[in-house]
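Reopening this one. Same input as before:
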Amino acid sequence: MTLAPVPVSNRDARRFLRHFLDDNGLHGDFADSAELALSEVVTNAVLHAHTEFEVALHLADGVLRVAVTDRNPQLPVQRRYADQATTGRGMDLVAAYARDCGVDAGPDGKIVWFVVDRPLPTDAQQEQALLDAWVLDLDDATHVAAGSGSTVVLLSLPPMLWLAARQHHDAVLRELSLYVAAHPENAPAPDRIALADSARAWITTQLVVELDRLAASAAITHQVLPDGHPSRLPDTPASLDLEVPVPDHAADAFAALQDVLDVAETLAARGLLLARPGLPEIVAVRDWACEQGISQHSGVLPSPWPGTGQERFILVHDRHEPAPLEWDTRLVSDADRGAVAADANRVIAISRPLADALGWDVDDLVGRRVVVLIPPELREAHVAGFTRHLTTGETHAVGVPLRLPVLRADGTRVECGFLIEQLPPTPGRAVYIAWIDPDR
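Same output, byte for byte:
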């Protein structure tokens, strides 16, 4: 059966499978396992391949083989997502409920297949199967850029920031694909989204390969966060020079990535996607990588990532004004101890005792981004961790006593005790209060 890359195709594929099993008298045997696995594979084809795809069913000796063939040669990339992430574990589920599964690459596309010969596992079996699940990994990145024409060099790429950006991109592009299905006149064409997906996968796949190589050789010695911090951010190098093999159409793909994500960010900021817009650093590292891919294709020499300690990241420049804050800031502004309140991006209130201890005037600090209080070497960890929180809802630092340095207005630091709490959400806004006690 040939299907279009639209959400309704998932329903049609499941119906096709049910009829096939009914016709062969097998619906009650392993239909649930097969339907669940097929649903995951078809969803990937709709959201990532953006081409027509074929579902082929083959039954022999009580064993069902399902193959989904699309025309996008881009192979899946291993995901390393948090427990609460809403994406990134589809092939884990396929592996948990299938006897075997895999991907066959070809010059004009790929075949994602699985074999089923058993019913849906019991709860205990499901749990064990997920623990043992196969996750697709790539031996090297040459598959991604088959027929490579050149190499893009990303100097001083910040791995942690890019991996956080990748997770955010996955969320907004998934939502954008669903938005396009209902509003095709107001969004990029599916083939443009597919081209954008290729560009970011070239970078991410090569980065995963390099990080795996460094981890295997015990070459990662950079400590991302201070001892005792509860975040689960992986240790990565502070930066690395990454060589990314790319095909001849790379410049167009990087331009598509920039354009498509700009559209997605604008829709997210307007509340039209079930994903939050990216923090400024997330947008900036993506823009930098895309611009490197485009300019190097024209013969321009590589230019390194300038880092997150730039003045432009301190002040807030919203594309759209946030929703009005329905919360009385006097809880913080009138506090007789150290306290600061922030939304996802900016300081919205600070107590006089904390402002005085940090050398800031209250009116000058309110409206700036939270990173103005964070030492430069910890900013990327903050942005990465907070992006993960905004994307998945995962919280590790909330409600946990912490000790961290805080940046004063004059650039000096003071060690502080922290306790962060999140207020009940208001429409379109998330508000956090940090109770901070500077060391005397």
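So the earlier flakiness isn't reproducible anymore. For the record, Residues 80-88, 127-147 have pLDDT under 50 and may be disordered.
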